């Protein structure tokens, strides 16, 4: 993906997504990668108490390990986009799996907290980032009609792996200590390399076979008599080669396409997503401490997160199925707005919950709304920018989200320390999520839908550069159709007519050469005098 064709020096035309087949294997790999990327930074927190004892540091110092992982996952988005556009998804994911595993293995030999930041934080976080983004790009290239369902199933990897990695980490800690646990976790991360290996790009074999079959069909129509069909095939191949030689090579794909900022839908999505991330992650981070402060026992308080994860597992695929319905998919942006509104109102309505029953009800509704947001966020982005520009779009979006992640939860923690009141934090976080939902719905309706009704469709200018791969592919198809229509006209004449026409053209050319008005000659071609038009070429040797 994203690399030029070595034979022609041009970008390959996009292949139609199969919506199945090997795509289900790609979906499973994306499920595993999503689970590791989102659940691993949270699962590492099981080892924090032992790290505090061994390195004599505080909780805030050890919490920086997870923060650095998440910062690398979001902040290195443009770097991942550049690498994917340059080298393709599979090599980047293989390198990312090795880096993630190496980071945890090296972390098991560290002697101070700074070394943990560099190994488990930076190295492992970078490795997971190099796996997460390419897996979503490959998922979008393999699915089109079933893409909402595929995104929902892949997003379900996050709660599933969180439910599995946290207990596993506790068992490893009790039996092998934190060093042995880090070492085994590093071995588990090697599965990212396996997932990267199955991400094979859609080959161009099917497209080439279809072109070859079309050429043979055209040649048979031009020369229907048996022995001359092969000559017609060679004639068509010669014309195609001459056309490719005259055709200027197209520009390669940009390493990072900033032209997506001219897309109003992308701007609206980015702003709403920034506001959303400011408050989305605050309630689950503060929920356990909030429950403890209200008098809930520690074990029951920790179980609240398990409730959210369990509901989330089923909410994401279910929301993906709903988003894939024919009457819902054209309005998926409004469904995403509803999911954010649902989540924000859940935070606001549950801010005054004091009993354990009230907190359980909050976790059920928060798990549903949180799962809906997780299942739709990348589907909406793919629908806005398309699969061709998704690699650059997701990198830039994740970079912008990184700033919101670094602002939202830390600011909420400081407000809790200053005010000693969780109710205000829930009101604030819910208001931010509601604001993002209203902004997305309003801006989509006013700026996009009304704009489509008023503005006429833009005219395509083939002379301007910087077009998308889809537009370039469409222009190639139009040229091929024009060329095939020109070749179909001789198909209705007989061989004698074709031979007579060729002899007459050669006779005219010889008379013109005697008069001294010769046009430049090509390889085995005689060009007509008037304008030396290449479309009027006649090949002597073919007849």
Textual characterization of the structure:
Belongs to the major facilitator superfamily. Monocarboxylate porter (TC 2.A.1.13) family. By secondary structure, the protein is an all-alpha fold. Among the domains are: about 15-200, MFS general substrate transporter like domains (Growth Hormone, Chain: A, Up-down Bundle); about 260-450, Up-down Bundle (Growth Hormone, Chain: A). The chain is built from 20 helices and 2 strands. It has helices at about 25-45, 50-55, 60-75, 75-85, 90-105, 115-140, 145-155, 155-190, 190-195, 205-220, 230-245, 265-280, 280-295, 300-325, 330-350, 355-385, 390-420, 420-455, 470-490, 495-515, and strands spanning about 525, 540. A two-stranded antiparallel ribbon has the order 1-2. Helix 1 runs antiparallel to helix 9 (about 190-195), helix 4 runs antiparallel to helix 17 and helix 15 (about 330-350) runs antiparallel to helix 18. The two termini are about 45 Å apart. Mean pLDDT is about 75; it is low at about 1-10, about 225-230, about 245-250, about 460-475, about 485-500 and about 515-543.
């Amino acid at each position: 993906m994203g690399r030029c064709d070595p034979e022609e020096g041009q970008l390959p035309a996009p292949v139609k997504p199969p919506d199945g087949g090997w795509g289900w294997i790609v979906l499973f790999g994306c499920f595993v990668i999503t689970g590791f990327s989102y659940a691993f930074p949270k699962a590492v927190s099981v080892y924090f108490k032992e790290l505090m004892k061994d390195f004599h540091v505080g909780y805030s110092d050890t919490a920086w390990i997870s923060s650095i992982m998440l910062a690398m996952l979001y902040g290195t988005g443009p770097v991942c986009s550049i690498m994917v556009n340059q080298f393709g998804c599979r090599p980047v994911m293989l390198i990312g799996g090795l880096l993630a595993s190496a980071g945890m293995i090296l972390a098991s030999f560290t002697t101070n907290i700074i070394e943990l930041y560099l190994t488990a934080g930076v190295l492992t976080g970078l490795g997971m980032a190099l796996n997460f983004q390419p897996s979503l790009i490959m998922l979008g290239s393999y699915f089109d009609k079933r893409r909402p369902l595929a995104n929902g199933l892949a997003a379900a990897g996050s709660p599933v792996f969180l439910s599995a990695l946290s207990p596993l980490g506790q068992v490893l800690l009790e039996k092998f200590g934190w060093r042995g646990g880090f070492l085994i976790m590093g071995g588990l991360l090697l599965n990212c390399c396996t997932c990267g290996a199955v991400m094979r790009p859609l080959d161009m074999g099917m497209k080439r076979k279809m072109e070859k079959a079309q050429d043979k069909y055209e040649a048979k129509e031009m020369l229907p008599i048996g022995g001359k069909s092969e000559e017609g095939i060679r004639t068509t191949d010669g014309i195609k080669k001459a056309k490719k030689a005259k055709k200027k090579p197209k520009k390669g794909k940009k390493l990072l396409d900033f032209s997506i900022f001219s897309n109003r839908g992308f701007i609206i999505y980015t702003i709403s997503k920034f506001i959303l991330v400011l408050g989305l992650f605050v309630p689950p981070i503060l929920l356990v401490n909030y429950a403890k402060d209200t008098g809930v026992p520690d074990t029951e308080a920790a179980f609240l997160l398990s409730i959210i994860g369990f509901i989330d597992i089923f909410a994401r695929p279910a929301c993906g199925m709903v988003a894939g319905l024919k009457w819902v998919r054209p309005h998926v942006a409004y469904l995403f707005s509803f999911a954010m509104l649902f989540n924000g109102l859940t935070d606001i309505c549950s801010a005054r919950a004091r009993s354990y029953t009230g907190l359980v009800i909050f976790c059920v509704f928060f798990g549903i709304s949180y799962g809906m947001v997780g299942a739709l966020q990348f589907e909406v982005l793919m629908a806005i920018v398309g699969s061709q520009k998704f690699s650059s779009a997701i990198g830039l979006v994740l970079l912008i989200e990184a700033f919101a992640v670094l602002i939202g939860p830390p600011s909420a923690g400081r407000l809790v320390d200053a005010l000693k009141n969780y109710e205000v934090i829930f009101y604030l976080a819910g208001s931010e999520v509601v604001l993002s939902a209203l902004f997305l719905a309003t801006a989509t309706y006013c700026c996009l839908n009304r704009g489509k009704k008023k503005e006429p469709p833009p005219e395509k200018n083939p002379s301007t550069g910087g077009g998308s791969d889809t537009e370039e592919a469409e222009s190639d198809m139009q040229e091929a159709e024009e060329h095939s229509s020109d070749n179909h006209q001789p198909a209705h004449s007989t061989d004698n007519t074709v031979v007579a026409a060729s002899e007459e053209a050669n006779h005219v050319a010889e008379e013109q050469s005697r008069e001294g008005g010769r046009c430049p000659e090509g390889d085995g071609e005689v060009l007509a005098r008037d304008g030396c038009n290449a479309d009027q070429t006649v090949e002597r040797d073919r007849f």
